[in-house]
Amino acid sequence: TDLIRAMSTLRERFPGLVCLCAGRDDSGGVMARLAADHRVDGAMRWLGFVDDPAPVYAAADIVVSASHWEGCPINLLEAMRAARPIVATRVGGVPELISEGSEGLLVDPARPEALAKAIVSLLADPDRRDAMGRSARQTWQQRFRVETMVEKLSGIYEQYARGRD
């Protein structure tokens, strides 16, 4: 709902802005009605569940996650892999994935005006967006590739096994 509320502000500054919303919508139509109430329904594209999100990330200038709670959101790891800058809420494990100002921008949850401000700052600065996208991809390669994760986990197991001898 915060992103829908933020879109009102964003569309004033960027009239052609379109928001691609991928993922299952369990709201029973509440999200679409809220978009209509805020007069941004024409800017929202409800994609539903997407088997292969790569084309969605490829089409995005920025990936936004406006959750009020999260664990370790896979969509942000996918965005990092796709070299996309991120605007996300500072909840759960998100700050462990995204370094403020490096891979993206973090805002407090339930603050649509702060979300809009962060998105505007990236939409208005393509060079900064590109740099954050490159940084996100680099961070993904260094920390979150499957091979990297297996290597780190194997090291932990080996260290534990040595200590048990």
Number of strands: 5
The average pLDDT value, as a whole number, equals 95
- Sheet-strand content, in percent, reads 5-15%
The first-to-last residue Cα distance is 54 Å
Share of residues in helices: 40-55%
Largest sheet entry: 3 strands, parallel
Which spans have pLDDT < 50 for at least 5 consecutive residues? none
Structural class: alpha/beta
Helix/strand order: HEHEHEHEHEHHH
Query: What topology, given as strand order, has the largest sheet?
Result: 3-4-5
Shape: elongated
**C-alpha Rg (nearest Å):** 18 Å
Describe what you observe in this structure.
The protein has helices at residues 2-13, 30-37, 54-59, 74-81, 94-97, 112-123, 126-144, 146-163, and strands at residues 19-22, 44-48, 63-65, 86-89, 104-107. With 165 residues, the chain is α/β, with parallel strands linked by helices. The strands form 2 sheets. It has a 3-stranded parallel sheet with strand order 3-4-5, with helices on both faces. The chain has a two-stranded parallel ribbon with strand order 1-2. Strand 1 (19-22), helix 2 and strand 2 form a beta-alpha-beta unit. Helix 1 (2-13) packs across helix 6 (112-123), helix 4 crosses helix 7 (126-144) and helix 7 (126-144) runs parallel beside helix 8. The radius of gyration is 18 Å and the shape is elongated. The model has no long low-confidence stretch (mean pLDDT 95).
